[in-house]
Amino acid sequence: MAAQWFALRLKPGAGRPYRNDERLTNIEWSLKREGIDYYMPMELAMKIHHRTKRPIDKRFPLIPGYAFMRAIPNEQNWRKVAECDFVSSIIGINGTPIALPAAQVELIQMAENSLRELYEYHKALRAYEEAQRLRKVTRRVAAEQFPAGGVVTISKEHRLFAGRRATIVAATGRNTIKVIIDRLNGLANAEIPLEFVEDVA
User: Measuring CA to CA, how many Å separate 25 from each of 17, 33, 68, 89, 94?
Assistant: First the structure.
């Protein structure tokens, strides 16, 4: 007989970090210690460390109060599971554990993976925005790098003025420079972000 999934109802505090290893929750540590094949759906959230004040990844139960285990029914010592620390009971009928459809657990795993991917995306976006903030060029430094009267080429990534030459009017304190661009229908004034500036002459 193949292994099947079973649901465990947990005691209060089961989802808190284990005191000797915060990478695990109390219930994960307990089930792992007993050699039980478990699955604890978790989600990530960013929290500020109370001492260092730095952002850290914290794990939280996706389905508070429940965990899952995989076992072969006629080979599992159910009393050992029921007496495991932080396990309140095994979901079943009249004391007999009832297996869950594998597809149900797979859906939970898919949801967990989707939430993790979304979290990682937002984490990367925050890191990028912070890097951009730290790279902010002061107006004085920008004026030295992009002196008035100098000529620059606008990068091909710019939506309106890709590849055009422009004459610098002044640097701003907003990570941009003011320029004059020679167009077929006359001169155009524009404010160009420094990330789109190439070939300073």
Answer: 4, 12, 14, 18, 29
CA 14 to chain centre: 24
Q: Please check whether residue 105 is in contact with residue 68, taking contact to mean a CB–CB distance below 8 angstroms.
A: yes
Q: 31: how many CB neighbours lie within 10 A of its CB?
A: 25
Do residues 71 and 37 lie in contact, with contact meaning Cβ atoms separated by under 8 Å?
yes
Neighbours of 153 (CB within 10 A): 17
φ/ψ of residue 189, rounded to 5: -90, 140
pTM of the model: 0.64
The span from the CA of 100 to the CA of 6, in Å, is 6
Comparing CA positions, the residue from 198, 200, 2, 201 lying closest to residue 99 is 2
Residues 41, 109 contacting (CB under 8 angstroms): yes
d(CA 42, CA 56): 16
Sheet with strand 165-171: strands edge to edge:
186-193, 176-183, 165-171, 151-154, 197-198
Report which DSSP code applies to 109. Answer: H
Distance CA 64, CA 42 (A): 9
Q: What pLDDT score does 127 carry?
A: 81
> Does residue 137 register a pLDDT over 80?
no
Instruction: List pLDDT tens digits, range 23-45.
Output: 899 999 999 999 999 999 999 99
Four-point Cα dihedral 153, 158, 163, 164, nearest 10: -70
